[in-house]
Amino acid sequence: MTSTTASTTSTGSTAAQGVRAVLVGGPTLHLKVAGLSILTDPTFDEPGSYEGGVTLTKLTPPALPAEALGPIDLVLLSHDQHADNLDDAGRRLLGRVETVLSTPEAAGRLAGVTGLAPWDHTTIATPDGRELTVTAVPALHGPAGCEPITGTVTGFVLSAKGIPTIYISGDNASVELTREIGERLGPVDIAVLFAGAADPGRFPVPVTLTSAEAVEVARILEPSVVIPVHTDGWAHFTEGADRFTAAFGSAGLDARLHTPVPGTYFDI
pLDDT band for position 190 (50/70/90)? Predict the structure, then answer.
């Protein structure tokens, strides 16, 4: 069973009262929301390996260079510890972005980053005169107690008058935390789920959502649209977009699924 792919265009302007997006690769999604240019977890390096506590190997190049996206108003950075969420080129890009939101720990390591603890929020003026509220929401990058190894991560919820409410999971592996997000903030319209069942070899379970867990999250948050990212392009991603699509098809939720074609803009 195949997923529904949103309508595509050849430009990066914002669709009226909606959202326009393009997947660069991995967790890097470019969004145009209420006139703002927003980027998640910037990764623009060419394929290669990164040494650290574990070796992470990138397999595919970015579908678009950073320059093709134009000026970025806001970066939503789930965490800065791992190269598959912030690589060398991504770090260089941060210095050209007015507002970068992440965890308080990332703010202590990176100049120009504003840290938000879970449930903290900030507002950003939009070019069309509205205010976009960005709320940091809890995330857990692995099983309970993983933080000394994986570090602190965050997700985000975006909301503003007249636009869809967007949940961006970040590298979250906890279904229960999304239940808490739903209870506190209500249903969302669009869920951008970092999935891929990432397995760097440090734990007996994946450190991001499996496809089956993503189905559970969709049932909890009830989004009209689910956008899978963080499923392909790195050796430690163990469940690709095809597995994600199959899980949503088996659950009868394939009508909600918009699987991005890397490098191709789509409207929601």
Answer: very high
Q: What percent of the chain shows pLDDT beyond 70?
A: 94
**Phi first, then psi: what are they for 36, rounded to 5°?**
-95, 145
Residue 243 host element (H or E): helix 241-250
User: Which residues of the chain form beta strands (DSSP E)?
Assistant: 8-9, 19-25, 28-33, 36-40, 48-50, 56-58, 74-76, 99-102, 113-115, 121-125, 131-138, 154-159, 166-168, 190-194, 225-229, 265-267
Q: List the structure tokens of 214.
A: 């993503």
Q: 170: which residues sit within 8 A by CB, 6+ positions away?
A: 41, 78, 79, 139, 153, 154, 155, 156, 194
- Please compute the mean of the pLDDT values over residues 114-132 and round it to a whole number: 95
Q: How far is CA 238 from CA 9, 103, 196, 210, 264, in A?
A: 30, 26, 6, 9, 24
Task: Answer yes or no: are the C-beta atoms of 82 and 56 closer than 8 Å.
Answer: yes
pLDDT of residue 5: 37
Residue-averaged pLDDT of the chain: 91
